[in-house]
Amino acid sequence: MLLFPVNPKYKKTFAGKKNFTFEKNRISKPVFGEFCLVVLKPGNLSNYQIESLRRFLRKSFKKRSQLLIRIFPGLPVTKKPNEIRLGRGKGNIAF
Fold it and tell me: Could you tell me where the beta strands, DSSP code E, fall in the chain?
């Protein structure tokens, strides 16, 4: 159940300005359920990281609870291979 966009308009996006607006006490209580995980630093999660977190939580909670994942890796991140010369276009999608 890996997460990825089905039909994106553009496969590779522009880098643009990295604008992280991060409020420390934004979530005071969970929206759904009784518990929630709170992120302390801004950043990006890949679909593999989200899937491994989901599997770990499913294994530890077993069937006692319901998991709601409210994040989606919708921003494609590109990366050029190591030891390659400059030029030759934009790199392939890493995650």
Answer: 78-79, 92-93
Q: Give SS3 for 76.
A: coil
Alpha-carbon distance of 37 to 49, in angstroms, equals: 15
pTM: 0.65
Alpha-carbon dihedral 10, 55, 43, 39, rounded to 10 degrees: 140
CA 16 to chain centre: 18
Which amino acid, one-letter code, is at 64? R
Distance from C-alpha of 93 to C-alpha of 79, rounded to nearest angstrom:
6
**69 C-beta neighbours (distance < 10 Å), count:** 12
* Segments forming the whole domain that contains residue 1: 1-95
Domain count along the chain: 1
Cβ of 15: how many Cβ atoms within 10 Å?
9
CB 61 within 8 A of CB 73: no
pLDDT tens string 73-82: 777 778 888 8
